[in-house]
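assembly run, all chains below
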Amino acid sequence: MGAAHARTLATSVPGAEVVRVFDMDTERAKQVAHGVGAEAADSAEALVADVDAFVVASPDFTHADLAVAGIEAGKHVLCEKPLAVTADDARRVVDAEAAAGRRFVQVGFNRRFDPGFVDLKAAITDGSLGDVRLLHGIHRNASNSTSTDDATLVTGSMIHELDTFRWLLDGEIVAIRVESPVVDGFRDPQVATLWTDGGQMATAEVFVNAAYGYDVRVEVVGTGGSASLEPRHPVLRRVSGQGGSAIGSDFVEHFADSYRIELAAWADASLRGEVVGASAWDGYVANVVAAAGVDALRSGQKRDVVVPERPSLYA
Amino acid sequence: MGAAHARTLATSVPGAEVVRVFDMDTERAKQVAHGVGAEAADSAEALVADVDAFVVASPDFTHADLAVAGIEAGKHVLCEKPLAVTADDARRVVDAEAAAGRRFVQVGFNRRFDPGFVDLKAAITDGSLGDVRLLHGIHRNASNSTSTDDATLVTGSMIHELDTFRWLLDGEIVAIRVESPVVDGFRDPQVATLWTDGGQMATAEVFVNAAYGYDVRVEVVGTGGSASLEPRHPVLRRVSGQGGSAIGSDFVEHFADSYRIELAAWADASLRGEVVGASAWDGYVANVVAAAGVDALRSGQKRDVVVPERPSLYA
Amino acid sequence: MGAAHARTLATSVPGAEVVRVFDMDTERAKQVAHGVGAEAADSAEALVADVDAFVVASPDFTHADLAVAGIEAGKHVLCEKPLAVTADDARRVVDAEAAAGRRFVQVGFNRRFDPGFVDLKAAITDGSLGDVRLLHGIHRNASNSTSTDDATLVTGSMIHELDTFRWLLDGEIVAIRVESPVVDGFRDPQVATLWTDGGQMATAEVFVNAAYGYDVRVEVVGTGGSASLEPRHPVLRRVSGQGGSAIGSDFVEHFADSYRIELAAWADASLRGEVVGASAWDGYVANVVAAAGVDALRSGQKRDVVVPERPSLYA
Amino acid sequence: MGAAHARTLATSVPGAEVVRVFDMDTERAKQVAHGVGAEAADSAEALVADVDAFVVASPDFTHADLAVAGIEAGKHVLCEKPLAVTADDARRVVDAEAAAGRRFVQVGFNRRFDPGFVDLKAAITDGSLGDVRLLHGIHRNASNSTSTDDATLVTGSMIHELDTFRWLLDGEIVAIRVESPVVDGFRDPQVATLWTDGGQMATAEVFVNAAYGYDVRVEVVGTGGSASLEPRHPVLRRVSGQGGSAIGSDFVEHFADSYRIELAAWADASLRGEVVGASAWDGYVANVVAAAGVDALRSGQKRDVVVPERPSLYA
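ok done. output:
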């Protein structure tokens, strides 16, 4: 992801210049840096010192510290989701911004920049769906590349739906349940049921071993109609008694537009000293909901989500 | 529904002749009878006596008694769903068949005869989806024409999904939860979560005030792939910046093929002294699951479904 | 086709009873007759004498004589397309009806009864497409089962588009050109360009070795919009990086609804002494246009179509 | 188009800096220049002198002269289609490159960079369609913004299909016919029939007053299958008895991806001293075919296309 972001910044985001790359694997850092005309940094600290703004795409457990380092250095940060591994860790980022009295961090919930998702939100806000009552989300990967345990399906994958639903509805998730047809071993797929403070419900399926490909869909159901995001490859092949389209397996490719637009929006906003997209607060809340989701998965119970009061910095 | 079935029998099912029509509303009975070249019967009892086989499409609370009357008279019966209002009532039909030592009753779960649903089942049984893990059902009506209280969404509408899921998976539903974003008043839409004895989960949305039209979809998700039933009108119109297809609001029209095929299969099987499609047992089990669903809706709890042992007559 | 029609009449068209079956192959006739509870007739003449109405699904060169025999015997006839092999032969049928002073013959242009085509016509007649300017037709078979020479693509396959376009537009084809990318040998696919008396143009592709399946599509383009008939199987399978639907290869299965509705409409109209659907005149005109099409194919030139004045019997 | 390209270069193409903008309308030039951090040039000649490479998006009649000016100055040029108004004019560009002994000009046939078109070409080159026999193109605009006479539908709009077909098939168009249902006045829509040196045929509809929106589709038909490019908006709305997607009316928005990728590829290749995409030769040949198309439209006759020998510079 880091290499992909570096390439996108270097090749598709004017105004951005990639000057430093850091990776614990020094050779890897040099290789990526070379490919984008940058230099490898000796340490994350050195990188933070040498740049105007930076992207965090390192292992999840390092996100919060690096975001805080950016805030303390007064540098704009685009931090890949999740903002932290735990809600407490994410809260440290929010607190650091509060202490700085200013926002620096954008969390990489890229769907907020995806043209399809933007249009889906427009279908809600233009009123043609009436009052929204239900959301249904599907999130499937061809194979599990990243989830080491089944709680990671919530904190690493479903966290996209958690943020997407909050953003689509302009609301908060107040309760969550996560269940699975598999009762022993690695629980996959998982089905979440969610409730919002706007009186809506939502379902979200996450399945990281769906075999056939990468597939993300959302349907919004209102009293006036329904809108579905159903990405489809524009080329239809009819061969051997089947008519159909390719389904890719690579989420970076699937969401390439959104990453490019996200990075450009981040670079542009950073130059103006602003933050767009998901804030540290949004990242923190997603972690709070995900933590309740993991608790729900482990206990088999519905869990209320207690979201603390929103600081005025994020009003 | 009764008038529609009479017309279909008269105009599209060779081998079937509609000879008697009964309705509490005598004028209505005469009118329908006249339209299909039949006579109005003086009473349901008289009708049962005068025909070789009959269709029950009267109010739900009369279904079980009429089915039992058919069994006792040794007449084949196609009984509209639900088989009864309560599981106990439905059990009386099963017991009557057990007492007769023979099956006479087909329950009108028409989707089992719908070409699309038949193909969806084939996608499961031909193995290309691998092991099925999840089902997702959508069942929307443009406006609520029949449900007087919100429990009826379960017993009258969702009962279709309950039977469909059992039939698709060749399995039993062992637990159910039914929830709704609406907490006071008429709970619509409702979202059910279901568990099967085959280790699968399912979600089912029922929404009887969906405004935009009648919409029934099912997705089956397995370890090897997914299959969705997504009926779409074959004519695509592109007008005024929109490209789309008509969505009807009439379920009889939507499922017209299935009703015709169902009635023909019933007439054909009846002539051979056999029963096809959903049996009285299937109707009874659907009532048992629906009753658990109503209990789940009212209590807000997950309810186990206790299905009694299947009598050998239905093996 | 004859066996399929006999089965459909026997199993799906109430009011119709199949009593006689004739085929030059006596064994075949007995077999089909047995399957539908009928008797094999000794000759076509005997069959005509013994029935109230009959379907002609014999080899094309016999159609006109059998239709005339029906007219002379005062029997209703559903004659499979084409009405005749040559326009002159088809004219004999028209003249026979003129002599009888009454219409008996319906030509089996089944698409006029296909629900999708009926809706496509509605999209024209309801005015939402504005003034129609263009039609585009696609007509593909998986493999060539019937065309012995390439002129047969026009007279046997494209003749469906010729009738469909006349019917959709309520107009006449006044010129035709038929060309092919293959210049030597069997010319397939073929592309026709057509002009109507309403100032419209049309293209029609016929391809009888399209390999992948049976595929019939039509797009109507007007000043106000476009409507396409694009039949699609309602079950979408997502497997192995592909999402798609089955495409059948059997036109009888593809158009099964239309055949059933056509036969029912024919039986019903025949009982009332009426003719619905495509008349002998429509069949004759299709032959006239097809003959011009064959001439166009052979000469490589655009050919005017000279349609004689419509007799008052067909006004 | 020029303003859009300037914006895309400035905001989405790293490595490119927009330094000069020229327009006959000085105020317009200043405005666009200001928006991208550039200066307005005093004349086209001054602009050519001051830049490393430039984009030509001025009126069509100026294209050839500006392209030649670029070649003579040794500057890379991205020239919007068409390369020239007449084939003779386009030939001057080819001759200038021949005289320079080097290629500098890319013609803006943007579809060659559109992801959908690239995949459509892949469906041909990967062999799954067998031998290609036919192409069908649709090219519709909501309203005619640019065509002052009906020949412009060929030289300005259909020229995209002419280049697309050559590129998809890696072949040459050897004959063309262009006809229209409208015989007097402004002939729109127009239907072209094309023949290639590879023994294929193609049809192309151009309709610049299609009212409903901008719509570009291509189907490739081979002996092994068919592939269609059918762009569809990923959000499906179901409202008021209709389920459908938005169709835009703006070709710049529709093909925004292709323009961005095209400009990036051009900037990248220019830095390396190379030319990618459609060459001046491709632009010239498109003009030659279009000229034959205009002649065909005016005469109502099929016209052979005589393409001169390809200079070795374009081998």
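The interface with chain D takes residues 10-14, 16, 116, 119-120, 123, 128-129, 224-240, 246, 257, 264 of chain A (CB under 8 Å).

DSSP finds ten helices and 15 strands in chain A.

not gonna interpret more than that til we talk
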